Amino acid sequence: xxxxxxxxxxxxxxxxxxxxxxxxxxxxxxxxxxxxxxxxxxxxxxxxxxxxxxxxxxxxxxxxxxxxxxxxxxxxxxxxxxxxxxxxxxxxxxxxxxxxxxxxxxxxxxxxxxxxxxxxxxxxxxxxxxxxxxxxxxxxxxxxxxxxxxxxxxxxxxxxxxxxxxxxxxxxxxxxxxxxxxxxxxxxxxxxxxxxxxxxxxxxxxxxxxxxxxxxxxxxxxxxxxxxxxxxxxxxxxxxxxxxxxxxxxxxxxxxxxxxxxxxxxxxxxxxxxxxxxxxxxxxxxxxxxxxxxxxxxxxxxxxxxxxxxxxxxxxxxxxxxx
Length: 323
Prior knowledge:
Layout: H1 2-13, E1 19-28, E2 37-48, E3 51-52, H2 60-63, E4 76-89, E5 106-118, E6 122-133, H3 139-150, E7 165-183, E8 187-200, E9 203-215, E10 243-258, H4 259-262, E11 276-288, E12 291-301, E13 311-322
Antiparallel strand pairs: 1-2, 1-13, 2-4, 3-4, 4-5, 5-6, 6-7, 7-8, 8-9, 9-10, 10-11, 11-12, 12-13
């Protein structure tokens, strides 16, 4: 399904828009030997070349989000699109019956548009997304095909997944630079704080956290990394080729609702989601001429109270290139 969506996506990008960066991202819990909770994610994203904020945007899709931002006269503005597919499963996928004390199966397909303001020490980003959770998302077929190809256990309980429901999400994130200094090997290090909030019927939450980065051209690339799922700003065009970027992020927050637990089911679920959130990420990016590759490890605390595991994790592999 994502390949068909990418074909439509590509037609739009080459229709006169000055595109800058495309990224393809895979997330999977097999990195930690798991096969449950947040199990898999696939993302295709694009962001335009950033232009000075004083230049009037040539596309109205950016302008409507400007009232969400506070004024940044020295910033560069960008906008982008993303399509993603995610899935959540119980800890044990070999059980064919409904599991009322474990998290339900859930598949999610989402289309998203974002706008961003970047400067050397402040970055703002806003997202609007429309999606669907349930069988229409196509995640049941995707997981079945992948497990069959890899010879892994066949998931047997997708008939009990969250039922179809349309979703709409609005998100906002701001990053503030706290410290930046020089480091060996002609590099820099920095620490920044961020606030990330979402509002919608899929999930609503508030989060705060810290980001540490070490690499080259940190001023030019500030704010391109994000706590938002599957988002990465245009880093390839502003980071020095043949260089490395190390990053670590920690965050805590509170989640008000979660459709992967609250959605309609064909059975009576006794699972109560955990509103207190905590997560961490550490990774490395290598930038070459015209592209980049990123690998990271991600950790998050249990998302429902009856989970017998306190922490879960997944790996992330991302490819980005200039078009």
